[in-house]
Design a protein that fits this description.
About 70% of the residues lie in helices and about 0% in strands. By secondary structure, it is an all-alpha fold. The chain has one domain: ABC transporter involved in vitamin B12 uptake, BtuC (Orthogonal Bundle). The protein has a two-stranded antiparallel ribbon. The relative contact order is 0.18.
């Protein structure tokens, strides 16, 4: 029953004011292509990546060789795959700290089934199932129990890593039986192949299967983000979750799915690395979660939710790997990598604020002008 002091007309107005439409939640505005481009953080990160590549090619000729390009593509692809899943979680305003540990657990489970001489597809299926279960546990406690994602995924980080150590008995798994050649072929496949084995000339880089799988996942996620109701609902949740609930968006179910998908991408990356290395260790993925989060933030994902792209996840991952590769070629101590990555994270967040939040720019420069002229 409505309160006594609320008239039927006032009640209707209150109900109307309490409800929102999806367009209000997402906040789409008509913009020209140029404004969208120059106001996009992934665009400026791409520009920075291009400039860095040009500088390194000029300073170090071996940087642009086909072999090094192939190495860079292979090295950053697993992070790019996981960053796509992480972006989906971050858009909802959450975080997934468990992806590195889930990688380790998936590799150990798949490796165990291979050492027990099961078929490769059975081993991969069991590894994938393990990853999906981890994601489902994360999603259940975050979406339906209402626990903070930081706490839940931090717990899963410890749990998955501990299970990986227990299941492997803290040993490397490498005796993969009769299916070892197939497993390695999956992880070490390249396309296109150069002459004489293939058709491509010597200057064309042989790109790892990891990269092509990353591209396929990115295309699928990009389509979902831009052309499906599910994608619109996802951004609505990150933009204003209470308003999204009022419009009838299945918030809990979508949030649950994002954590499952994040674990799925971690499992895919794990199985690819398992095949490439030809072995499984429980330490796989240690510390990867920080680099994956860094890649998503650099690529334009907003840790407060509501913003992120699949392309941004890829270009952010690529920039971090190019920085790492450039530092090694320049002879700089690898211990400085963390400093450069940290600086780029801060700069990326600042760039995002400058390109998307006009009030931030006016406030900063307004305060500076006021202090200078008072």
């Amino acid at each position: 029953m409505p309160p006594d002091n609320v008239t039927p007309r006032g009640e209707a107005a209150a109900i109307e004011s309490d409800h929102a439409s999806i367009s209000d939640v997402v906040g789409n505005k008509e913009q020209t292509l140029a404004k969208k481009l120059f106001g996009s953080q992934p665009f400026w990160v791409t520009v920075a990546l291009f400039i860095l590549i040009m500088v390194m090619v000029a300073a170090e000729p071996t940087f642009g060789t086909s072999n090094n390009v192939g190495n860079i593509a292979r090295n950053f692809a697993p992070f790019g795959i996981m960053a796509i899943g992480m972006t989906m979680v971050i858009i909802t305003g959450g975080i997934d700290l468990s992806v590195g540990s889930v990688m380790g657990l998936v590799a150990i489970v798949a490796g165990l089934f291979l050492t027990w001489d099961y078929a490769w597809y059975v081993a991969f299926a069991m590894g994938m199932l393990t990853g999906l279960i981890c994601g489902a546990v994360n999603g259940f406690f975050v979406a339906y129990v209402g626990m903070p994602s930081f706490v839940v995924t931090l717990g899963m980080l410890s749990l998955a890593r501990s299970l990986a150590v227990v299941f492997s008995q803290n040993q490397m798994l490498y005796k993969f039986g009769h299916h070892a050649p197939i497993v390695k072929a999956i992880g070490q496949a390249k396309w296109p192949l150069r002459e004489p084995a293939g058709w491509a000339p010597a200057w064309v880089p042989e790109i790892s299967s990891h990269f092509w799988i990353m591209v396929l996942i990115a295309l699928f996620v990009g389509f979902v983000f831009n052309f499906t109701a599910w994608g619109r609902h996802l951004f609505a949740i990150g933009g204003n979750e209470p308003a999204a609930r009022m419009t009838g968006v299945p918030v809990n179910w979508i949030k649950f799915q994002t954590y499952v998908f994040s674990a799925f991408t971690a499992a895919v990356a794990s199985l690819l690395l398992l095949g490439y290395n030809g072995s499984a260790i429980n330490a796989m993925g240690t510390g990867y979660e920080l680099r994956v989060i860094a890649a998503t933030v650099i690529g334009g994902a907003n840790l407060m939710g509501g913003a992120g792209t699949a392309y941004g996840a890829i270009v952010g991952s690529a920039l971090l790997e190019v920085i790492r590769n450039a530092l090694l070629m320049a002879g700089i101590d690898s211990n400085w990598q963390g400093a450069f990555v940290g600086a780029f994270i801060v700069l990326a967040v600042l760039l995002g604020m400058l390109t998307t939040d006009r009030s931030f720019v006016s406030t900063v420069f307004g305060n500076w002008f006021h202090k200078k002229h008072r």
